[in-house]
Amino acid sequence: xxxxxxxxxxxxxxxxxxxxxxxxxxxxxxxxxxxxxxxxxxxxxxxxxxxxxxxxxxxxxxxxxxxxxxxxxxxxxxxxxxxxxxxxxxxxxxxxxxxxxxxxxxxxxxxxxxxxxxxxxxxxxxxxxxxxxxxxxxxxxxxxxxxxxxxxxxxxxxxxxxxxxxxxxxxxxxxxxxx
Amino acid sequence: xxxxxxxxxxxxxxxxxxxxxxxxxxxxxxxxxxxxxxxxxxxxxxxxxxxxxxxxxxxxxxxxxxxxxxxxxxxxxxxxxxxxxxxxxxxxxxxxxxxxxxxxxxxxxxxxxxxxxxxxxxxxxxxxxxxxxxxxxxxxxxxxxxxxxxxxxxxxxxxxxxxxxxxxxxxxxxxxxxxxxxxxxxxxxxxxxxxxxxxxxxxxxxxxxxxxxxxxxxxxxxxxxxxxxxxxxxxxxxxxxxxxxxxxxxxxxxxxxxxxxxxxxxxxxxxxxxxxxxxxxxxxxxxxxxxxxxxxxxxxxxxxxxxxxxxxxxxxxxxxxxxxxxxxxxxxxxxxxxxxxxxxxxxxxxxxxxxxxxxxxxxxxxxxxxxxxxxxxxxxxxxxxxxxxxxxxxxxxxxxxxxxxxxxxxxxxxxxxxxxxxxxxxxxxxxxxxxxxxxxxxxxxxxxxxxxxxxxxxxxxxxxxxxxxxxxxxxxxxxxxxxxxxxxxxxxxxxxxxxxxxxxxxxxxxxxxxxxxxxxxxxxxxxxxxxxxxxxxxxxxxxxxxxxxxxxxxxxxxxxxxxxxxxxxxxxxxxxxxxxxxxxxxxxxxxxxxxxxxxxxxxxxxxxxxxxxxxxxxxxxxxxxxxxxxxxxxxxxxxxxxxxxxxxxxxxxxxxxxxxxxxxxxxxxxxxxxxxxxxxxxxxxxxxxxxxxxxxxxxxxxxxxxxxxxxxxxxxxxxxxxxxxxxxxxxxxxxxxxxxxxxxxxxxxxxxxxxxxxxxxxxxxxxxxxxxxxxxxxxxxxxxxxxxxxxxxxxxxxxxxxxxxxxxxxxxxxxxxxxxxxxxxxxxxxx
Lengths: 179, 831
Known about the structure:
The complex is a heterodimer.
Chain A: H1 4-18, E1 24-30, E2 33-42, E3 53-59, E4 70-73, H2 116-127, H3 150-158, H4 160-174
Antiparallel strand pairs in A: 1-2, 2-3, 3-4
Chain B: H1 2-41, H2 77-83, H3 103-138, H4 142-185, H5 190-218, H6 221-244, H7 247-256, H8 258-283, H9 289-312, H10 319-345, H11 353-384, H12 389-418, H13 426-455, H14 463-493, H15 499-504, E1 508-509, E2 514-515, E3 520-522, E4 528-530, H16 531-540, H17 559-569, H18 571-577, H19 593-600, H20 602-605, H21 624-635, H22 647-661, H23 683-689, H24 694-724, H25 732-745, H26 762-770, H27 775-783, H28 786-790, H29 794-817, H30 821-830
């Protein structure tokens, strides 16, 4: 019997292939390595990210699902909860006890109940902007001076038009259209 | 438009560079290799005897002027006095004209230089080419990019080397000039002449190296280095043998000459690398990217530590020492790779036979080597006393433990792979292996440091690994403790899920997403998981994966208690709930609704306003608040139990602890008590309480719920009091409690009809079931029934008799439990 992490990932892959949620495609980059996935997320309708197709990479730890995977957009993103290098900063991707500042309650942290599908759906809703930009998430990565994108957060708050414009440009870029 | 045409031009330029570079790589480089190879073969570079490179210095030894003869003492000022009348710079005269450069070397320099210049240019083009290509391959995968980056770095280093070569040429001429000038100044001193010759020799060697290096860079790098080192070794040995004709003198010659030894060292290094490659091919095949990364990372640490170790043993520094350290590093890297490989077993869908054969062979070879080295170190320490061998002995002993660990892991994984069902105990075995190995390692390191401190000095190089080992051991230890606790909890507290329960719900374990057939456990919150999945999760977190109920915080519901609760709970919901059940979910009746409740309302429980509100004068408490208060109240006495749980659990528990503990003190909050009579109620409300309409029943239920809430508060306060008052004054508890309740009771409560009721009414019966902590609860409860007794409807009387029954049972239970109860509360609160 192969490792439980592998079996669970295979099960999730099967599930995602059989019943794909709308606007999300995900699967292992290489069938020999189930611990690295690639996902394509379409920008939610009615938002500034509408129409875009955003590629992302998911790296699973060996003890998945006990520990959360890491998610990183491989295209350029501009969002308050996405680091400038593409890493996604949402609470369900943080293991309980990760956050020394105690900003996030453990109820919204990672648990084995979560799945790739849930992560991707949360990311979609994050893109949809139902979440207030969360500045304090920077606290989870103290050694990264840029933090989750502070510029984007500021612009989101103060200059929504400009933010939307940038987002639209990103959408065009992901589609290979001229800006 | 301008931008457009510019971008077009840039594109064209890019294309041109690409084409150029491709041509360079495909055609020019192979041609260059051939040319350089031919150049190397020419007589200029193939001087068997380095003495041929020498150039005679035409500086004759002049007739000595006897300045220091005793007969004619010459004052020092003589020189300056004589020369004062000559104008211009003073120049040393060389009788035979200017001293020429070393013609051979000049020749070589002029030959090599164009190649070097070409190299700089080529590498520049290549650099541009690779950087242009990077985004193109990026969308494939990251590996390609990293290779490109490596290549880029490689090219850059080539470029800088070429530049350094230019430096070297000028430096050579400078140095030579200086020495020649010394020769001119002190023509008698033979050593200076010798120095010039040596310098020429050195430059010749380095020029040859530069050329070879160029050949290497352009060909396959590693193959080139290998070939070069072999050629050089052959040349050096051949040269020595040619000169000395005999074995022994040539060996002496080689070991005495530093350049020769350098060549030999390079050769040895190359051999080690080749050996490593061979072993890698044999035992691992292709390395995965992650493995390679790990290896690189770890070897840097290992190299730094080795350098630190050199400082301690600088007295013993010798080629043998260096060789031993190289071997150690070499073996270490294979241990790391083996570890990675075996860990990979769990993650790989298919494990071939070749893999097993390789791993077994590798493990046995490594284990045997470690054993041999440990034995050797031991022998040498015993016979010759403490030396560097001590370090090696310990290092290999540590490696031996690593091998043991890997082997055990491998066996466990293999056994697991053979069976079709997941092997539950594997995790436990792995954990204990980790613990045992960690312990052995820690002991080894501590002994090692102790011995080193006694004999030599503080072994700085051992600290980093020692720290990591201790941390790992500590982690393993904690894991074992947590795991044991989780297992104990699971085995004793939580019942196995029955087949009915499994079939009732969708029987997929949410942790591993597989069907649960056997070996599943039900948590107090009614969530069902595989035993093995739960156990591995409980090692991390002591919460329910689905609802995050902290299993260590929940009261240890013993089987007996639970049984009792279930027995009590079973009948009541039947009648009183059935009557108003119109809107209530009936089918999904959880077997242990109290736990279900506490858990459903867990998040609001963490919110500060969870403290019960004083009901006096509350105009319209919404349906949520009483429910909130009532559920939080029975939880309150348990929150302080968060103390003994792990750090993470404590973190989540701090909030409820803080906000519950202080507001709940009886001196601060007046306890809510039921109305003594119904004077505070309007006629309409009283009518609402009676009757058989649904509103009437709902109103009654609400009133009952308020009563329940008050009861719970009373029990909480009682437990708080028992916690605050030291156990030596047990009499204080009953005394202070009723007094308090009397005070607060004077304020009549208004049970206000509210619009929503979101908690199932069954909970209230069970709530009363579980709030058995204090005698005051009984007293308060006894004062309650006045209200239900007044209502004459059949359903309430049924409820009433039900309550009578419940009270009777509770009194029984209380009388059997009360002696230990305050104590239990006390201990739980102390944490």
